[in-house]
Amino acid sequence: MTVAACAALVERGDPDRFIATLAAPVQSRAHLFPLYAFNLEVARAPWVTAEPMIAEMRLQWWRDVVAAPAARAHEVAGPLHALIETAALPVQVFDRLIEARRWDIYRDPPADDRALDGYIDDTAGGLMWLAALALRAPPEAEPAVRAYSFATGLAAYLRAVPELEARGRTPLCDGRPEAVSQLALRGLIRLTAARRAGSTIPRAVRAALLPGWQAEALLKQAARDPAAVAEGRLYVSEFAKRGKLLWQASTGLF
Q1: For the whole model, what pTM was predicted?
Q2: CA distances in angstroms from 5 to 1, 19, 36, 143, listed in the order given
């Protein structure tokens, strides 16, 4: 039950977030890896079984972990419980994140754009805000962090569309190219809003934003070429990825 075990899980299951965390200050990593390992475990829960009841039970187990007064003997639950205690992380944010993942169990499409926005805000947004809180973000930083996390989560979601469809899901309310383009533009608008409010996010907290370093490029590509979403062509070149991550980590700008 160590942070190193959490880091190893993230390295295997979420390599982009692992790389982003390695770009963060060393002292931040012990706060970030348990959260990212928890997110990976919860995100996987709906997909590791074809039985909805078992998936529901897996998610409930994590809800119990977060709410428990004592740590459980588990490679992620132990470090996560310690982080929740030391950083006084709000259990309700964890709970909303886990609850949102119940939608992944079933095959229903999002009811509307508002429902999809809520899913992204509770999953990607909840995770990034928890990461920011673990790094001592002040309350006034939440709107900017959540605006940035929406752009980050939406970019990742659009990149996952082909895989979701292959697994029998209907990930978008409207898959027409013009609708996909508008969705990507909404993400870019939220990214701009985050930057305008960026002064509310202390430099020491901005390591929590590093996982979003590809969002702008991916959203711009989706807005310009929406067919790339369905065809699985959303990508950032390795050269551009490394350059942007290095720039964001060294400047603190996003």
Answers
A1: 0.97
A2: 7, 16, 12, 32
